[in-house]
Fold this sequence. Notes:
By secondary structure, the protein is mainly beta.
Amino acid sequence: xxxxxxEIEIEIGGGGGGESHTLEIAALSNGTVSGGGTYRPGATATxxxxxxxxxxxxxxxxxxxxxxxxxxxxxxxxxxxxxxxARAEIVVxxxxxxxxxxTYSITGGQVTIQDCNQTVSGVLVIPATLEGLPxxxxxxxxxxxxxxxxxxxxxxxxxxxxxEAFRSCSRLTYVxxxxxxxxxxxxxxxxxxxxxxxxxxxxxxxxxxxxxxxCSSLTSVTIxxxxxxxxxxxxxxxxxxxxxxxxxxxxxxxxxxxxGCSGLTTVSLGQNVTSIGQRAFYQCSGLIxxxxxxxxxxxxxxxxxxxxxxxxxxxxASVTSIGSSAFYNCxxxxxxxxxxTVSSLxxxxxARCNALTDVHISEGITSLGSRIFYGCLALxxxxxxxxxxxxxxxxxxxxxALTVVNLLGSAPSVGQFTFGFWGGQTPPGLERSAFVQxxxxxSFGGTGADWNGFTVGISAPSLTPPQLAISSSPTGLVFEVSxxxxxxxxxxxxxxDLESWAxxxxxxxxxxxxxxxIARPAAAKRFYRVIEAGR
Length: 535
């Protein structure tokens, strides 16, 4: 019996003196491939592409081609194979000539619509589920440029619309937004020029910037009570929007929010608004009046620039800052009072307010900046309070009707062209008077002196209209008349219907308030007014 021992070398793949071939899978995205590894020469390898949720396999690359899946290849050498994946697609029927091809992705068991062919037309109903999973969001730019869509129905369950999701859908007239939506991204409906009405869901808390910018057919929009932010140019250029109610939760009207809303006639601001941004109502040419809330502190630069129809305005006493050109070219504005709380008054704040005839600058304001009332063509008289110490360049430049200035303090410092005219030429025949208090006359150069084109005189008439206050007392009614010009005759008149007026009492203006008592009238309610005698 003989014993033998053997050494057996086992070669993977066998044959060929230990030769083998490697099948390498190239770096992939949105999917994986199985079947890579080491093979003996001539062996058959099987590759299978596995797309991520929301993607589909579209073809092989590298040392393989075609789109068979699985794919078999003969390993007669080293191989490197890749695979490509694309977002999943579904064709959705529309009422138009071209159906929608939607691409989508799936994350965490939820579907996001990512894209749509721009040739889609008609009415599109987005499906509520895809691959058995709920559609919960519309991605950024998903329908941008689908300019043949006329209506889109978004399914319940969708909670968010991405940035510019429907931008430039220029024929889109209506979008059905479910109550489930809580957010709409910046510019989601930018330049949807045929979109005429829109219901913002109650769960939305902020109106993103550019949301409806350029929606020139938008006539009606309701902002939910829960909204606390309205972004820049959110309604820019909505020229047919006529009415806006800003909810109480909003504290800041951001820059240019309603810029170019030329059809806007009514704006109701929430009482918690403290700041109006730059050009917030720029070129709102149809806006006749606006109630600014008590508590407002800041009116930004150009906030009401070119609001050419605005006739009346009350600036609350809480306002501390009025930006440059804030009311520039409000050419229908007749009267304005600048409260004493204003510590910053920007250049050209009321420039070119052509109808402005009544300007009241409160005592406490110390200076007026450049060209504040430049080109206010109808302004005939103005009071300068005692607290004013400086008047900037061109404050009243080209105020061609300004003939009387009433200065209650000593002569303020004056800049270039403060009361001047373009080209430096005073209109021929223009006579101008500066009325000053006797104790300050010397600071103006004395009576009869020329002070910046005005002849200095004493005892200016007050520009503040007479004020009548009536209060009740145990014996009847107490009348108190104030803001009277010394020596001026006044008539107090009475009426029962505010149409026909009868003389009641005549008085003469004096320093301080004029007061008297009467027995309570036995007749029905009476009305009283005080006017200058002879008017």
